[in-house]
Amino acid sequence: MSLTRDTIDFKFENLKIGRLIFIINFIGYRKECTMKDIRNYLNVKASTATRQVDKLVNELALVNRITSEDDRRNVILTLTEKGWKVYKHHKQIQEKLVHSFMGKFSPEEIQLIKKIILELTKNDGIIPSK
To answer: What is the pTM of this model?
Structure first.
């Protein structure tokens, strides 16, 4: 599996997850988020984000919707126990791929790659900037 090429075919046990893994990874990384966070992350319309999250909640049982105690209009998304298993499994796959890829570079090249990745992701809110 490559980092992105085989994402459309991503499966866990008997669940066909495909590109929904991006939402699972986002929620898993952040521990919890809102629908607005998902819309902003995916850069999609509310209806598209809602359909995708509906599938994760209703069909796959990987995500929970929790009404915020502070504001009942706000819905918090978290991973279910099964969702965490999927997240951890996919994270292990990614880590193996990154380690095998990074093994081809010198320590100096790795530092440059890290610097580039941090620069590319510092404003997206996914990877905290230093």
So the answer is: 0.78
